[in-house]
Amino acid sequence: MGSRTASVAAALANAAVLAAVPAALVYQAGPPHPDLPSASTVQAIIRQPLTSGFILALAHAGVWSIWALLAATTAVRGYRRLAGALRWLPTLHLPGPLQHLTAVMLGATAVSAATGGMPAHAATSPAAASDDTTHPATGSAGHARNLAVQATTSSPEAPATYTVARGDTLSAIAQRCLGDNDRWPEIWKLNKGRHWAHVSGRTAFTDPDRIFPGWVLTLPPNAEPPATTPPSKPPTPQTPRPPTISPTAAPSTAAPTTPPASGPATTPTGGPAATTSSPALGDDGVFIPPETTAAASRSSASAHPALPTTSPSPATARAPDTAAPDTADDTSSHSPGWVEVAGGAMGAGLAAALVYAVTTVWKRRRHRYRPTPITSPVLRDADLTPPLAALTRLRQGVRRAAPHLLDRSPDREPTVGEYIAADVKPPLPPIGPNGADLAGVGALPVTAGLGLDGPAALNAARALLVATLTTGSADDPDTRGRVIIPASTLATLLGVSAVDLNPMHRLTIAPTFAAALALLEEEIIRRSRILADQEAATVFALREEWTFGEPLPQLLLIADVPDDSWHPRLATAIRLGKNVDVGTALIGVWPEGSTLTVAADGTTEGGDGERVAVLDTAATTDILTMLAEVHGDAEPPTTAPVPAPAWTEPATLTRQCGDDPSAEPENLASAAHSADARPEPDAAAADAAEAATDKRVRARVLGEPAILGTDGKPVRGLRAKSLELFVYLVVHRAGASLNDIMEAIWPDVTVSRAADRLSTCVANLRTTIRSVAHTGTGSSNDAPKIEPVINTGGHYHLDPNLLHVDWWTVQDAYAQVATAADDTARLAHLRTAIAATRGGLADGCGYEWIDTDREHARRRLVKIYAQAASLHAESDPAAALALYDTARALDPLSDELARRAMRTAARLGDAAGVRERLTALRCELDDAGIDIDPDTEGLATRLLRDLAHR
Fold it and tell me: Which of 244, 382, 457, 749 makes a 20 to 30 Å CA pair with 102?
């Protein structure tokens, strides 16, 4: 009832002022006279301006003007409330200067009226005296929670409400307010179908996975903050609070004037959990997965595969009860929603964003790749080096803490034409979390000035730098954070690695602190002018209302705390930058704002006790090198990887991989069969015919992996982990140590349990292969015992004398092509490899260790098809075109393959084929957030022009 009483008191105060001022003026000086002064009166005023009559008249005119402004503002606010109830009424806006002036007047009236009618302890909070002109993202976090408890317990007859903040989901709200995230359906039932007119551009609440900042959700009667809520503490002006639970009869209908604060939610262990959203990963950022931001903020995604549209935030990840059975018993030592890696720890949201960033790296490398003739049995391509050493560990941590961040696709966004033509504007995807959210300091916003102190202050600053440069994507440009940092601070954070750091357009390195501060001030001025032109109060409001405006992502200054002489100027810049989303993070104690004391594990003192991300120098340098390639600021590595033996795959640290490529075609051999211009039997029949002469057990890992029976069909009884072990051993043809196997397949399981599971899977694999090998030979008890999986000195490898694997056939044929004497022999070996191919490596299997190996296999297959097509180009262009199209199916992002296919189609006189392949390439690159090569479009134009002239 407190907020309703405050609103009524403010309304009565406004009404009293509106009535009392004109009455007093008329009583004292009579009604105003609109007559213009005569010429003699004007001359007299010029000769003697400071007369008592003139000063009195000027004072009367000023008071009347202020009263008229107050009356107009009150009328507009009343109209807006009416428009909130009657949605067909248009929205009115006062000019920007009048809004600022009247806001001061109305705010003073409302605060004074509310303070008089509230208890003393409540009046001390800025939030307590606010009506619907103030947003619930201001004030002290602890004090706000304390007020929420008091209001809930003192007004049991009024339903409790919750104002949605950026990064929230229904399950997170249920965990925070009801103590159980599985109670989110209760909140959904209470609010289903409601509409909040004050939230610009939002539709009715019809999807529990899509909620937006500013919505005021009604909670069940027994809602209250969880038992782990920290005790209240006195409010500080520099510390905005998260959304509060306030009991009201109905949601507010006034537009918020400041953006919702977002930050990690408290959990029983003090660590934040990860948000949900869509990853959409673009050309200069990560989209964070769609689930990461689709739930509550305009994410992920990305960083997605096209991360994650929606970008992840560590605010609302589920506890590790979602872990897979293989890892559930080993997660007790981890904080919920947090991922531990070599060199630090971070929230699941940031980890997911990095995963999608690596996906973009692989896509960019595939886009730039130009297949060359096969001249060596091994691949020596430098860009097959894993982009990030810790990627497999990051993905495994996200799978354990918040798997939905990696498994959801981005929602479709309306096109410009659809949006403009729609009578009722469709909702736009929510904005994703910024770098402060991903780093875990969203509850103490950097826009108010944040100091980082303690043993891990440098580690926290490094993580904040990485998180800011990781955010955003082509689908979410408002979250492509930028950083300004003095050269001395960067050298402190990265050491000697700062010298070799690639230039990045989102990272501005200033020579001195003075230069960095000057750049910050220039951007504040530029953004302030944009706000004035659009008559908006803050950047956050501008993003909601200015659909086609310039993206204004968060700009962050990271620096050491300067000398005392700089403090006034820096404090002024921080204050002016708050409304334009310009923030500052200082290494050291910052007396003008909030300071966090960061421990080595990321736990903090001085805030709300949340945990923040921490990274050491090596991990930060590794990530920044990868991000430079993600943003298009750097080329892939140029040093060739170490060659491997001629008959096996190059040695790779498979735990250092990172891509989740899209599903490959089910049958890549079909185009090759048509290229040979002869009918082919179906795959099962061909396998059965070959099996009749080759007594080895046949297996495939290209396409859907399986061990095949004598009829060419997959056998039953093989465990999922046993099949993964089989694929791993096929890829590591020379064998793999038990330690490497267990680290790749069971990284989060205890040593003893991993050894037991490995033993079980090996036994299951051996039994399955033996059952196929003994089929048709009588009783398996009488047959000699075979060992398909051989253990030699702590290494497992498959026996090639007992197994016929399609990938080994491709590898052997590839090596023979490199040493063939002429094109006829090369083409024969290429046909052998093509006949064995049924898809990409382990299609549809999301093994955590397989990404780099999958790229090796993709690259080899592309080279095989491209070289076969080039050998057919002169004699049979139609066969060459079919082979190029098959290679394009393997890698639809390749400009070079598209160009070769268009040239071949033009040779056949197929203009429609040229256009079709150009259009397909554009669509694939648009989805990946990559720009098409201008040479490709120029080639298509020339080919079509030449065909038209023919």
Answer: 244
Contacts for 818 with CB less than 8 Å, ≥ 6 apart: 374, 375, 376, 377
Residue 583 has φ and ψ, to the nearest 5°, of: -125, 175
Instruction: Indicate whether 846 and 799 sit together in one domain.
Output: no
pLDDT of residue 98 exceeding 80: no
CATH number at residue 698: 1.10.10.10
CA distance 557 to 559: 6
Structural domain of residue 940, as residue ranges?
842-949
pLDDT tens digits for 705-720? 999 998 889 998 899 9
Buried b / exposed e across 921-941, counting CB within 10 Å, b at 16+? beebbebbbbebbeebeebbe
Q: 879 by DSSP, 3-state: which?
A: helix
CA dihedral 172, 173, 177, 183 (to 10 degrees): -80
* Domain total in the chain: 4
* Residue 329 falls inside a structural domain: no
pLDDT at 765: 93
The count of other CB atoms within 10 Å of the CB of residue 25 is 17
What whole-number distance in Å separates Cα of residue 350 and Cα of residue 37?
69
Residues 580 and 441 in one domain: yes
Provide φ and ψ at 318, rounded to 5°. Answer: -75, 155
Lowest mean pLDDT among 79-88, 153-162, 227-236, 707-716: 227-236
Mean pLDDT within 137-144: 35
Other C-beta atoms closer than 10 Å to the C-beta of 920 total: 15
We report the CATH number of the domain holding residue 924 as 1.25.40
Task: Round to whole Å and give the CA distance between 628 and 933.
Answer: 19
Q: pLDDT band for 860, please (50, 70, 90 cuts).
A: very high
Chain centroid offset of residue 371 CA: 32
CA dihedral 613, 619, 620, 622 (to 10 degrees): -140
Distance CA 259, CA 277 (A): 19
Choose one of 96, 118, 140: the last residue of a domain. 118
Residue pair 936/895 in contact by the 8 Å Cβ criterion:
yes
Neighbours of 53 (CB within 10 A): 9
> Which tops the pLDDT comparison, 740 or 48?
740
pLDDT tens digits along 506-525: 999 999 999 999 999 999 99
* Whether 707 and 793 share a structural domain: yes
Q: What rounded mean pLDDT belongs to the chain?
A: 74
Specify if 334 maps to a domain: no
Give backbone dihedrals phi and psi of 510, rounded to 5 degrees, phi first. Answer: -90, 145
CA distance 897 to 917: 10
Q: Enumerate the H helices of 676-822 as residue ranges.
A: 683-693, 720-731, 738-745, 751-773, 806-819
CA gap 341, 792 in Å, rounded: 32
Helices (H), 329-456: 348-368, 391-401, 404-407, 416-421, 435-439
Position 238 in a domain: no
| 696 and 610 part of one domain | no
Same domain? 615 vs 497: yes
Return the CATH number at 618: 3.40.50.300
Asked if pLDDT for residue 3 goes beyond 60, the answer is no
Percent of all residues in the chain with a pLDDT value above 70, rounded to a whole number: 66
Same domain, 765 and 909: no
Amino acid identity at 570: L
Interatomic CA distance for residues 329 and 307, integer angstroms: 30
Domain C-terminal end among 63, 84, 118: 118
Question: In the Cβ-directed half-sphere of 321, how many Cα atoms lie within 13 Å?
Answer: 5
Residue 211 lies in a domain: no
Mark whether 617 and 492 lie in a shared domain.
yes
Residues 449 and 592 in one domain: yes
In Å, the largest CA–CA distance within the chain is 131
Cα dihedral across residues 910, 912, 915, 918: positive or negative = negative
Which of 615-646 are b and which e, b meaning 16 or more Cβ less than 10 Å from the residue's Cβ? bbbebbbbbbbbbbbbbeebebeeeebeebee
